[in-house]
Amino acid sequence: MSRTDLYPSRQSTEAKFLERHDPVIHSTWSKDAPLTREQHDSYDANGFLFLEGLLSEDEVASLEAESSRLRSPGAALDKETVFTELGSGDVRSIFRIHAQSELFLRLAADPRLADVARYILGEEVYLHQSRLNYKPGFRGKEFYWHSDFETWHVEDGMPRMRALSMSVLLTDNSPHNGPLMLVPGSHKRYLTCIGETPEDHYKDSLRKQEVGVPDEEGLARLVEEGGLVAPTGRAGSVVIFDCNTMHGSASNITPMPRSNAFFVFNAMSNRLEAPFGPAKPRPDFVATREKIEPLRRAPARSLAAAA
Amino acid sequence: MSRTDLYPSRQSTEAKFLERHDPVIHSTWSKDAPLTREQHDSYDANGFLFLEGLLSEDEVASLEAESSRLRSPGAALDKETVFTELGSGDVRSIFRIHAQSELFLRLAADPRLADVARYILGEEVYLHQSRLNYKPGFRGKEFYWHSDFETWHVEDGMPRMRALSMSVLLTDNSPHNGPLMLVPGSHKRYLTCIGETPEDHYKDSLRKQEVGVPDEEGLARLVEEGGLVAPTGRAGSVVIFDCNTMHGSASNITPMPRSNAFFVFNAMSNRLEAPFGPAKPRPDFVATREKIEPLRRAPARSLAAAA
Prior knowledge:
Two copies of one chain form a homodimer. Chain A is an alpha+beta fold. In chain A, 23% of the residues lie in helices and 20% in strands.
């Protein structure tokens, strides 16, 4: 009674390109869509979209203040959701921010984000994962290339490619401070990874990814075909990318920290099953499995403190 | 009988900005200068200059072929001049290439490079150091911020700021593959470093710099005042920078390697004394001390293989 695994990975000593069995955009464009025709086509072709200056400066200030509060020692956070930088001990990520901060929940549910997610995924959505990333200046570590879906499928049991991520920039992204780099077009095929998944892999992989990363030959081929893009712009801009778009970021030695709020929207019909890899699924704060409910439909309203 | 140390460093637990006692350009501009007036002024103000496309594609091809030859296992190289990447074992740097490759000596002595060095330093020059850097794709490590002069002064006994570096790009530099980043204007002051120099420090510091690096506060101030520039362009371009310009580079996770030939020109009058820090000087292949002779004056001639 084995399930069909459309996207097998980490099952062989050789990496392969497999076909993608799912659409990238699960809606047909009309003039009522929350994306322009050009944005729709660009996301479909490239696997990502950069919405420059989506949030106002006042909204960014309000989110930054909330981010500082959450990263300070006094914040009442679920301990297991807080990850620190190897070496320095600085807070690198806080998970499940939508459940630990009303403001970050409002951000995720804001129609400027959530309506786009519902449009691309073609139905109601929920948050598979959320986190606040803080990459300190001077010694921000790199994050090696990976397709999120590969991990979500193998380690979390996400069955299909019907999810996307939104990275809300809370600091200005320059080419120098280790911005997110994406490989345009890489979402169209599935590059399997070699090797097996160690038990409780997430404890290390959230700091430094070593299993579930593409082989160099496959990666080189994707970059040869699609090139590399690192969207840069001011805080308040948003990068949206498909769950299978290859991405990573270099180290940050500049004095400028890089921070973002990160939300993974998954289609309600695509909720998690048993993992396709290891028997034990990752904990709920990394991959929501319990109490799945559609993200609330919120009215358009400023996120600024005074609003 | 202690010498005057104009640029003391690593002697205190506090970092300080000290005055620069030397000119940046030791010549007065005239229309016979090998730099335009704008280039002269820009180097003086910013501490670096980017000469885009200085070498032809044929010359780059010839230098690349020589670089591959030197990095291959069969090359007859002085073992102590070869440094490998931590982890992978890939060749990261080969020192003293001007003494181990006639072509790289020709490159250093080429009037397009050497005449500019003589002009900026205001007299005959010699090579304080030369090396071939190869930063592999996928796992090229970062190089933290530093002023070269600080190390050359403390560890090598270079008395004055009358030296400069030229980095000849042998691969295209994009914003993504860990290009050299410089802090404009940082050359005008001397930022002392804290801590002491361990014995035989060069063995580790050539791989990963940990002593002789600026404190975060001082670095942040320099970047606040001058910003950051990462010159990018095609192979064959040359970055020239003052011995005291703060620079570094981030990691390179892209498939594109980054390679350059690196030459340090020092004024003949500025040859090494006893180190100002540890008693034992670094070996000759890192910091030329023996048999100092002015770099030969070579005629203009293409470096391409067919030429």
